[in-house]
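Handout for the seminar on molecular recognition.
Each group receives one record of this type.
Step one: identify the two inputs.
Step two: read the structure output and locate the region that could contact LP5.
Step three: write two sentences on what you found, then compare them with the reference statements printed after the record.
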Amino acid sequence: MQIHFISDLHLCADRPALTAVFERYLAGPARGAQALYILGDLFEYWAGDDDLDDPLNTHVAAQLAALAAVGCRIYFMPGNRDFLLGADFARRAHLEILPEPTLVPLGDTSALLCHGDSLCTDDLAYQAFRQQVRNPAWQVQFLGQPLATRKQIIAGVRMQSEAAKSGKAAAIMDVNAEAVAALLRQHGFPRLIHGHTHRPAEHRVDVDGHTCERWVLADWQGNQGEVLIWADGTLRRARLE
Ligand code: LP5
Ligand code: MN
């Protein structure tokens, strides 16, 4: 019995080697899991479910559906790049979209799952942007525009985001300790599993006398990925090629 956690693959047509790593993972190690949790940023960006006919998107959905067909439950939590992924993709990929955060049982200590961006509260410019684009009314208005227009807007935002990041101190783009503590307190001191920061590590966090684990998932790059595996009562990382 295994449970798998991945995030930050940033799949896109320009990175076929990475898509191939994902394919090999889905056809191989993932088949040993009873559940796969994808904690956001599966895609480099998601412009809306009407982009499902894009060859990469069709392909990824089919590969996920094939994994679901052999009995692995697949769960997806939105990241800051693919929060517009919706019910049509979920149906096509045979996965379930989870609210953020979600608490799942994992041995004797539950795991609280989130993408991680909501914890980067020192990044005020990003949090303002996030509040705007996570607003349901804003999303209805955005998704009402033609797909090509949306892709143009996203290209502009991506450029602005890259420019903004180059001027930010590294610490600002990491999680805020108080935000982590507040979340752990609110959910009864579970272990925390998240991605987003691209700083894979295992932290111990002391909150109100409780020692909680904080597992940060690795981003996938080049022709290498990583999965966090729950098996035999422990978490371990496995490299994917
Ligand atoms: O993703 P990553 O790790 O590189 O950077 C994030 C933050 N940036 C983002 C933007 C995304 O990377 C690119 C957009 C993805 C597409 C989303 C789909 C639809 C959205 C449509 C938008 C109109 O999330 C980055 C953080 C970093 O994580 C670390 O935590 O710092 O945040 C920024 O850089 C944001 C800037 O600071 C401020 C925002 C600039 C863009 C303003 C555009 C205004 C357009 C108005 C539309 C609402
Ligand atoms: Mn992210």
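Reference statements: The chain is about 35% helix and 20% strand. The longest strand covers residues 201-207.
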